[in-house]
Amino acid sequence: MSNYKTIDPEEFAEIFKALSNPNRLKIFTLLASCCIPGTVSVLDSDDTACVGDLGRELDIVKSTVSHHIKELRRVGLIRTRRDGQKILCWVDPDLVNALREFFAF
Amino acid sequence: MSNYKTIDPEEFAEIFKALSNPNRLKIFTLLASCCIPGTVSVLDSDDTACVGDLGRELDIVKSTVSHHIKELRRVGLIRTRRDGQKILCWVDPDLVNALREFFAF
DNA sequence: CTTATTGTTCGATATATGTCGAACTATAAA
DNA sequence: TTTATAGTTCGACATATATCGAACAATAAG
Q1: Is the minimum CB–CB distance between A17 and chain B shorter than 8 Å?
Q2: Partner residue opposite B25 with nearest CB, options A13, A91, A96
Q3: Phi/psi of residue A22, each to 5°?
Q4: What residue ranges in A4-104 does DSSP mark as E strands?
Q5: Are A30 and B5 a contacting pair, CB within 8 Å?
Q6: What whole-number distance in Å separates Cα of residue B101 and Cα of residue B4?
Q7: DSSP secondary structure string for all residues of B34-61
Q8: How many other CB atoms sit within 10 Å of the CB of residue A100?
Q9: Which of A34, A61, A92, B76 is the most exposed, fewest CB within 10 Å of its CB?
Q10: Cα first-last separation, chain B
Q11: What is the Cα–Cα distance from A54 to A65, expressed in whole angstroms?
Q12: Closest to A25 (Cβ–Cβ): which among B9, B19, B33?
């Protein structure tokens, strides 16, 4: 694991912190599993809103979902784009790749 | 990322939480970079104590290091073994592999 | 323009966490 | 047995966080 010396501990700690909350991790995994990396995320094929759908899926109020989305976006794990009333979300494949390499021997 | 559906969010969130503290992440990376996976960890070739060495390296008191070691061990990221007065630490390669797969597309 | 829908921001609150120093335990050395 | 070294546990404190509901903002529909 020689690459461990090259990472910024503060930055990576922030990323792991973003994944340390169960609901936030579920949001991340939902987004990761429902979309092709690099493309816009949808929970079903009807192109529904991310924040609302995620809240309904996880049974948490939208203000909490919005807060979690903001945090995931802040550390770079996901990206967002407005489409009408809805905010579409998807995972950033580059950061996911960096995380996979972090755990590579 | 089809494997995202199979993980336990609570368990993985705990693991990420263990890595979410900068000092704890530094301990993990020090252990990961200084030892061959599966073997006993040493910071230098003199087989010195892990807790004391880590504390000196990171400039934090031993009670804090001990607390962090306990947390890393609780979630399975590291393993420990007593050797005389010293507690030797090393990373668990299986869990590191699982984390790498978690971020695999 | 008015109403409905979607998402954000704010304030409050309860809970968790990181850190330290002091006291204690365990092992080794003299 | 006494002393030294290494690590753990405990109590305390300050700080951060997760969550909710209410109020607000933006966009769409009528």
Answers
A1: yes
A2: A13
A3: -55, -45
A4: 78-83, 86-91
A5: no
A6: 9
A7: HS-TTS---SSTT---HHHHHHHHHT--
A8: 16
A9: A61
A10: 4
A11: 7
A12: B9
pLDDT of residue A47: 37
- B91 contacts in chain A (CB < 8 Å): 1
Task: Report residue B21 CA to chain centroid gap.
Answer: 12
User: Nearest 5 degrees, angle CA B14-CA B15-CA B21?
Assistant: 90
Per-residue pLDDT of chain B (105 residues; tens, 9 = 90+): 545 557 888 999 999 999 999 999 999 999 987 655 444 444 443 334 468 889 998 999 999 999 999 999 999 999 999 999 999 999 999 999 999 999 996
What's the one-letter identity of residue B8? Answer: D
pLDDT confidence band for A32 (50 / 70 / 90): confident
Look at residues B32, B61, B40, B87 and name the one whose alpha carbon lies nearest to residue A9: B32
Please state, as a whole number, how many other Cβ atoms lie within 10 Å of the Cβ of residue B7: 16
- Is pLDDT above 90 for A49? no
Tell me whether B29 touches chain A (CB under 8 Å). yes
Show Cβ contacts of residue A102 under 8 Å, excluding neighbours closer than 6 positions.
A3, A4, A7, A12
More confident residue, A4 or A9: A9
Judged on CB neighbours under 10 Å (0-12, 13-18, 19+), B38 is: exposed
In chain A the first and final C-alpha atoms are separated, in Å, by: 4
Band of the pLDDT at A33, cuts 50, 70, 90?
A: confident
Residue at the smallest CA–C1' distance to nucleotide C25: B85
